[in-house]
Amino acid sequence: MNDHWGHCKNCKWWEVESAEAASHEPIGYCTEEDLQPFHLRVTSSSGCNCFVSLNDVEREKAAS
Ligand code: SF4
Hints:
The protein has a three-stranded antiparallel β-sheet, with no helix packed on it. It has one domain. The mean pLDDT is 90. 16% of the residues lie in helices and 25% in strands. The chain has one helix at residues 54-63; strands spanning 6-7, 14-18, 27-30, 41-43, 47-48. By secondary structure, it is an alpha+beta fold. Iron/sulfur cluster is lined by residues 6, 8, 11, 13-14, 30, 32, 35, 40, 42, 46-48, 50-51.
C-alpha cells in the first residue's frame, strides 16, 4: 500500500477489459496481489492507495 491515492487508468495493476462506447468509461480488472481475492472490476476513474504509477514503472524500465 502507498501513501498516495491514484486513478486506475494510470496504475500498473489495471488490465483493461474493454474500451466501452464513448459514452462509457473503460472497464478493467485490478491485478494488485493483495486485492486479487476480491476480483475487483473497476473503471478508469476508480482508484485506491495501492496505486502504482505506470509512469514510474516506465521510468524504471528505461533506466535499467
Ligand atoms: S484498484 Fe487500486 S491497485 Fe487496483 S488498479 Fe485501481 S488504483 Fe490500481
